[in-house]
Each structure stands twice: as structure tokens, then as C-alpha cells.
Amino acid sequence: MTRIVWFRQDLRLTDNPALSAASQHGSVLPVYILDDTNAADWAMGGASRWWLHHSLQSLNHSLQGRLLLLRGDPLSLLPLLSEAIHADGIHWNRCYEPWRIARDARLKEQLKDSGIAVESHNGSLLWEPWQALKQDGTPYKVFTPFWRKGCLLGAIPRQVIPAPSDLDCLSLGGSPYARQVGDAGITALNLLPTIPWDQGMRATWQIGEDAVRQRLREFLDTGLGDYKQGRNFPARPNVSRLSPHLHFGEISPHQVWTEAQRHGAENGADENLDCFLSELGWREFSYSLLYHHPTLMRDSLQSKFDHFPWQHDDALLHAWQRGQTGFPLIDAGMRELWQTGYMHNRVRMVVGSFLVKNLRTHWHRGEEWFWDCLVDADLAANSASWQWIAGCGADAAPYFRVFNPVTQSERFDPQGDYIRRYVPEIAALPDKYLHNPSAAPAGVLREAGIVLGKDYPEAIVDLKDSREQALAAFKGL
DNA sequence: CCTGGAGTTGTCCTA
DNA sequence: TTAGGACAACTCCAG
Q1: If we measure between CA atoms, which residue out of A23, A118, A111, A31 comes closest to residue A70?
Q2: Is pLDDT at A475 greater than 90 in this prediction?
Q3: Inside any domain, residue A199
Q4: What 3-state class would DSSP assign to A179?
Q5: Helices (H), strands (E): how many in chain A?
């Protein structure tokens, strides 16, 4: 008998509970379905699609070209496929986006009614969101107790599952079955851009299961040692850059957890290891928030923010999006995002704070832009993080937490290495004025050959004024 | 039910 | 130059 393995956000062979379970029943048909019909507003953005193309290619390669690629509605495709190949069961690893939960629940009902076994597995979270609860059975709203009590004191994450050694993949190549359900093939999924905006991305990333395991080893060997401090400096190589791989499931958090613990056991566990593991905790926390608050992507957790006096100015928003704000750290971050599909975490906070507080733009605008541009765009992490920086999330972020992009720049990119990489037109400025060209004396600008407003924008907003206005608006709530 | 300590990531002013 | 305190008040969470 054959079991279908429906790949979704688990594009790997190692530590894949659904694949391993299915393979124990006999032959396996691996399938991926590009589902734009059920996602509504949260269909994958452009950068994510680009990543997906390469990740699917890598997975297909690992499966000796046996991955069936379809596009359409799984609710109709999977019953058809099951019938066509006489599958007696379907396995998948759980997803936690509300629309996916709803879709999968419907599908499960449907398949069970037609006598097909359905098994869902946990492939992407260390702790299920319905397990990490307070004593009284309700979900946590604050990270620290969630992580320390709800997670770390709970069940130990399961062992990593080896890739199936004797995988028997059903091949449908050219068979009528594949055509019956519409074998799209990877190019037909149209995941790649029609105009070549992906050059910077291709130069930045190595995609796929083998590549990410190498990346993890490299990070543990060279980045973890000074993680706690170094991770704040965007020019330093101390962040893991695992997020897109984790999002698409080329690696599981269990693998990261296990490898990091092993590294700690061999080299000494310290606050750097704890700090890194707690970043996995933030991922878990975001998923927990989304699971228990299914409208997290839309509704502010603190409803008083419904009355916040947001402003909207297309020109200011556009300047932010394209990295033309006149604040070099902001512009470097937004251009890093545009060019590579990624932005350093410290800089994400600074650009987010700037958009929401200094420009007083609704956090939805930032959320949407990141969704389209990030290769690690993840509904849980993106929604939770924008709410956090906007101050409307579950954690009571102090109202006075407004990042100053110039101060942050001086503190975390003191030599300007990050800025000069992404904002080369001001590279000739001395470090002292690199962080805020609008404050540079005319002579310094002339010396560097820069005309503000022509070669590089004047600051689009007054930091002091806009900060005070944001604080006043908050006070008015 | 009550109580008290704590809450990822900051900034600015003052002494 | 640098360190410390102010900046609201509230909710969360565990005992």
C-alpha cells in the first residue's frame, strides 16, 4: 500500500515525523501543493516564493526527482490523488496558521469519511501551543514565564529522527495518475520573478537541507561564542541566519536544539547558548500567540490601540520602503531587505520603531511590506514582532521605548561597516557624520562630495519632534 | 482573593 | 565623560 506524504513547511528528509511514519507502512508518494486558494490575504510574498522554488528543487533532488508538484486546492486535489493511486493514508506535519488549521481540519474530515487514514505529526515546534500553558490552563502572555516555566520545565523535546534509510518512493513520472490531478512541475509553479530582482538573493543564500546543516555547524563554531553581545551588531557574523530555513522546514527546531546542546556539552554551555536557545523560544512564543489569538495579524492585542491616531503619508511610506529616509541605518536595513530578502534583527527593531513611532504609520503597513520582501516571512513571527515593536502586543512594552536610529547606529555599527555596504553613496563621510548626514557641516559634506537632497536624502522627519508626538499620542490613549 | 515582584532589545537629562 | 534615575501605569504571573 502507498501512503501520501504531503510536504508543506517541512522540506527535509531528516527529522521529518510525517515522512518517517509514512515510510513504515510501505511505499510513499511525496507531494507538494502550491495553495493560493485558501490563504486569502496571506498568500506567500515574492521573496518567499523565490526561496520556495529553490527549496523544492533541493527536496526534489533529495527524493531522486520523485516529488510530485501541484498547484491548486488541496481540498480537492488530495482526495483525487488518493483515489487515483489507491493510497490508504496521508501523513503531514502540522502547520499553525489559522487558515491552514481550518483547511487541514476540513480535509481531515473529508478524507476520513472516504476511509483514508490521516495522521498529522509535530515537525516544527518544540512544544505544542496547547501544551505550554499556565497552571490554570490558559496561555501565557509574557515571554519569560512562557519560556522558563511553560517550555523549559515541560517535556524534553523529542529526539531527532534520522532520514528514512530505505525510502520507497512511488514514481508517477509520465503516468496517467499524475496527469489526472495535474502535475505542474516546478517551472509551472511560476515561483521565480519574471524580472531578475533576485540577483542579490542568489548571491546571499544557500538553500536546502544540506546547506542549512552546514550553516548551523558554521554558526555554532564561529558565531555562538560571542552571540549574546555580537548578535546586536549587524556587521558582525554572530547571528545564525537560520530563520528562512526554519520557516520552510529545511531544518527543524529539534535539530537546531540538539546540535546547539551538543555543542554546548562539548565546548561549555554558557549565557551565549542560553541566549541563542531563547531565540527558538521566541519563535515558539510567536506561534503560541498566533494559535491562541488567530487574528494576531490584524487586531492589536491591546484594543486601546484601535484608537491610536495613526498617520498615513504615501511619500513617507515609500521613502521607508525604498531606504530613502535620510537615516543611514534605516536605509541600510531597508536596502538589505530589498536586496537579500533578509534584515538583521537589531535593524528590524530600529526600522520598525521608526515606521510606527517616528512616522506614526500603522504597523500593518510594515507587516505587509515585510511579508512581501522577507525570505523568512512567517505569519506568527511577523505579526507578533510588529505588535511588539508597535507596543500593542501582549508584552507590556514600555511606552517610552522609541529607538533613536542615530544613537542605535552609533552604538551598533560604530565603524559604519554595515551602512557603507548598503548605502555606498555616503561611504566617504567620516564615521562621525556617517550616522546622520543631515547633521554634517557643509564643509564635511563638500569634502565627501555629497549634496544632500541629490546624492542622498535629507532626513525626512525630525527625530525629537516626532518622538514627542508619538509619546503624546500614546498618552492620549 | 490578595500580594508583590517583574516585564528582550531605550532615551534623555542631570549630577 | 559617565553613571544613575526618571519616564505611567498596568498587566501578568506565581506564591
Answers
A1: A31
A2: no
A3: no
A4: helix
A5: 22, 5
Question: What is the tally of structural domains in chain A?
Answer: 3
C-alpha to C-alpha distance for A68 and A63, rounded to whole angstroms? 10
Q: Which bases of strand C have any atom within 7 Å of the beta carbon of a protein residue?
A: 7-14
Q: How far apart are CA A369 and CA A382, in angstroms?
A: 10
Per the structure, the complete domain to which residue A2 belongs is given by 1-123
**A86 and A223 belong to one structural domain:** no
Residue A339 confidence class, pLDDT cut points 50, 70, 90: very high
Rounded Cα distance, A114 and A109, in Å: 9
Residue ranges near strand B (C-beta within 7 Å): A 142-144, 232, 279, 282, 345-346, 349, 388, 395-398, 400-404, 407-408, 411, 463-464, 467
Cα separation, A441 vs A258, whole angstroms: 53
CA distance A208 to A143: 31
Q: How far apart are CA A270 and CA A172, in angstroms?
A: 50
DSSP assignment of A319-380 equals HHHTT-SS-HHHHHHHHHHHHHS---HHHHHHHHHIIIIIS---HHHHHHHHHHH-TT--HH
Answer yes or no: do A217 and A333 share one domain.
Answer: no
A167-184 pLDDT, tens digit each: 999 988 667 777 777 777
Å from A145 (CA) to B5 (C1')? 13
Residue A414 CA to its chain's centroid (Å): 28
Q: Which nt has its C1' nearest the CA of A401? A: B10
| CA A154 to chain centroid | 25
